[in-house]
Request: fold
Amino acid sequence: MEKKILITGGTGFIGTILCRELVNKGYGLTVLSRQPADTVRALCGRVEATSDLKLLEGHQGYHAVINLAGEGIADKRWTASRKQALRDSRIGVTRTLADVCKSWQSPPEVLVSGSAVGYYGDQGDHLVTEDTHPHPEFTHELCRDWEQAALPLEELGTRVCLCRTGIVTDRGGGFLQRMILPFRLGLGGRLGNGQQYMPWVHRDDVVSGLIWMLENPHAKGAYNMVSPNPATNREFTKTLGKVVHRPTVFPAPAPVLKLVLGEMAGLLLTGQKAVPAKLQHEGFRFKYAELEPALADSVAG
Reply:
């Protein structure tokens, strides 16, 4: 019998590739999206679309739920209203999702719910595993509350995995799309002093990791979805310049970034030396463990 999965955020940078992989594996998908159904299918493949989670109240249930909903954290300056929109698009949607799942005739066997390594806040050069104590700041509070909204499903017997994703690289979107033009023009450079860590990960590994959490019956709890080899911003900058064959001699000074971006500059000037300790311990294999091959693939074409 075809196993059915409900996905939020299925039309996003990670979700579109994930949906197509799951369809190819024989799963039946329902994608929550505000976009027209034809657009959803054009992006995600042979899927059903729904525009409102509450339309699924009282449903007989899905085998699994993958929750990737959330507005881009770096899309706009962090005003008070923007912070609230970020919370609503993550925490609000996840709470509604949990309530809808509780109304089903059968609860999902597994919920894989998005989060981010921003959970840990600024960690300097300390090695960050899933057991690291977080630094209190906006990104930690956002991710903490996001995760807490998913955990009540454990009371129904659902296996809950929390995917703390790093900075995702690949062509056609994500943060790299904003960086690549100045780098191709030879105008790229480090951010601030360049010593902050960038916990990067290739999109192919994120998709494989989400499917691994979905299908591995022993997977549970929080996972750092990052490469085994975190890089400093200086190292990342130098490697990106190398793969596009351009110099990287135009740094962006920290005071300028703070002036332009306000509090959001912290996303660029601080970071986490995060590693995927649990994923590696439990046997997950990365396709792109090294930065240079990941960036070369991400900027190809």
Summary: The chain has a mean pLDDT of 94. The CA atoms of residues 80 and 86 lie 10 Å apart. The first strand starts at residue 4 and ends at 8. The longest helix spans residues 80-102.
